[in-house]
Amino acid sequence: MDNFTYNIPTKIYFGKGQISHLAELGSKGSKVLLVYGGGSIKRSGLYDTACRILKDAGVSVVELAGVEPNPRIETVRKGVEICKTEDVDMILAIGGGSAMDCAKVVAAGALYDGDAWDLVINPGLIAKALPLYCVLTIAATGSEMDMFAVISDMSLNEKIGTASPHMVPVFSILDPEYTFTVPKKHTDAGTADIMSHTIENYFTNVEGAGIQGHLCEAVLKTLVENGPVALNEPDNYDARANLMWASSLAINGLLSGGAGVPWTAHPIEHELSAFYDITHGEGLAIVTPAWMEICMKKDPSKTKDFAKFGRAVFGITEECDECAAKDAVAKLRQFLFESMEIPSTLRAVGITEKDNFEKMAEKAATRTANGYVPMTKEDIVEIFEMCF
Amino acid sequence: MDNFTYNIPTKIYFGKGQISHLAELGSKGSKVLLVYGGGSIKRSGLYDTACRILKDAGVSVVELAGVEPNPRIETVRKGVEICKTEDVDMILAIGGGSAMDCAKVVAAGALYDGDAWDLVINPGLIAKALPLYCVLTIAATGSEMDMFAVISDMSLNEKIGTASPHMVPVFSILDPEYTFTVPKKHTDAGTADIMSHTIENYFTNVEGAGIQGHLCEAVLKTLVENGPVALNEPDNYDARANLMWASSLAINGLLSGGAGVPWTAHPIEHELSAFYDITHGEGLAIVTPAWMEICMKKDPSKTKDFAKFGRAVFGITEECDECAAKDAVAKLRQFLFESMEIPSTLRAVGITEKDNFEKMAEKAATRTANGYVPMTKEDIVEIFEMCF
User: Fold this and answer.
1) What DSSP character marks residue B335?
2) CA distance B160 to A115
3) Quick check: helix, strand or coil at residue A37?
4) Predicted-complex ipTM score
5) Residue B110 and residue B196 in one domain
6) Is A211's CB within 8 Å of B246's CB?
7) Chain B contact for A247, CB < 8 A?
8) Mutate to test the interface with A, among B13, B16, B20, B242 (most CBs of A within 10 A)
9) Are A195 and A223 in contact (CB under 8 A)?
10) Does pLDDT of B158 surpass 90?
11) What is the pTM of this model?
């Protein structure tokens, strides 16, 4: 097991009615920037509830609405500008990963003199940030309990992750009821996103990280059991609750600390979203099984790890590692593309030509050389071809 | 799943050489009370290392040495007195649960005007505490990352748990190498303690706490895999590391949040330690399998839960719930009393007469009425009889 520092200061208010804790902002500041995406929080009534609680707590509200699914640097800049001109002293994100990621970089940008894109390409420049509070409305990125944010500059075809302990939310409110109205497509994609985080954590070259591996298996089993239930019964509280808590635990450091996680599928998918603006979770679902097959093809000694994964998560009982590993990938595909009904190919999500495969693979390969199985540009092109 | 608040502010420095972080105390205060037990930290050199780092950081040190295995209120009072007369502004516990629990109540008592026992019997009186830092030397109680402390008044045969968010350590240093010298008896008892915390978390009446259950299974599997290795190869780093991290995660709120944990085995064991000063972890190991059997006898509908436990933790494949549950208890006994070589009866730990069974059971029963299966005085006497 590797050395690690575990530090998750975000307080979580989990469950029904926890929105009342927004009133605590009254004692923490006077003006909040409310960051959100489309109109879903208005339709659901959450927007009105939050505004009423904030008003009753004596907090004034200014807004940054319309954050995109892959949040753009232009929107971040707009939020920073509002913070600076309106003397905002705290940020509240209501939504999913996009709203929260945008809010994080706005929070940092508000206390930075240069352009916010600097903070995306150079996280070391993030020296402080306004305090951030979140209300989660979809189980997916885990941004509600971590220090990460992913921001896109579509003019450059860049989608880049940044991170800072200053951007970790002070508290996040997780009420599973807010996810009852999440449409099928996003319940799917969110579950795939959580699964991908966990899979990236699970396949590590660090020896002796046994407890981390078992914790990954716990999250993965939770997804396999609850994803299809949430899909078919959108207002099943326990299914939504299990997915929601899995979302936070999958990427807050619990699974990675000590296990030296070498991200690979994420950098590969990031190029797909950066070039084609596809839904992150769908991209991850499409890429992950192919990535597994390339791993085993390139390094057959890894087969035993995929066999272990299949036995632990899907209850595969085959004794032969090669058979169990093959079955594991098949079961994963079945879960993602049949039980969860996620599109299974790049074409199915609108990527109908291969023109950018080389270019995307070249960019992704700059971040996959130290992966669980190192991936070259050629390997990544092969993954794209398999997924086409 | 129940509503819950998750709030674990303790920062963990995990791994080799993390003791260097003690130097951070130089920027946090000027005089520390060093709380520890017997001479083991002197023999291992840890005492000297810590004192040197503190001295180099400009921190003066006063000491509370000789904390007992079941820490006494008299020792707490002595620590409080030192804090008050010496103007101590922070506390450092080096050791296991006893040193840390004692240090917690000293930290609170130092800022309280009355007698420290008040804070044990009435946690609501704990309004503040000196900041606490810990260096862990045994994987067991999880006190390094939680708000709990258990203090005994042997003159009253009382062993009582108290808790306060003010007593949560600011940071804890977890270096598995410090546990290489933990003797067999305490590696055993510590593992049994962690296992018991996790089992108490696992068996809950809350519906839909799926992820919490799977996380418990992850910790339990970690114990089953690593406990015997640590026993037979005391300096196996990865085995010690897995046990150490399991110790913290088992009781910091991760497994219990949302699962409404109804503690039963602990209150029963607490009476044994309070009357006979036995090793807490050994008492828990002895009591737990018998408690399981009484649960199923009193409420056969629970049998399926024990079958699930056996399948997940011990890989039992029997389809019949009753057989699997029976096998699960047998496998647990085999793990505790054979693989881990823990004494299996009360007589084996020195409780050679039954005179206090009624009295202990009566006291324990005041805290077990809302358990997973409610336990009466008579049930607890039966457990003691089974364990005799």
Assistant:
1) I
2) 57
3) coil
4) 0.95
5) no
6) yes
7) no
8) B242
9) yes
10) no
11) 0.95
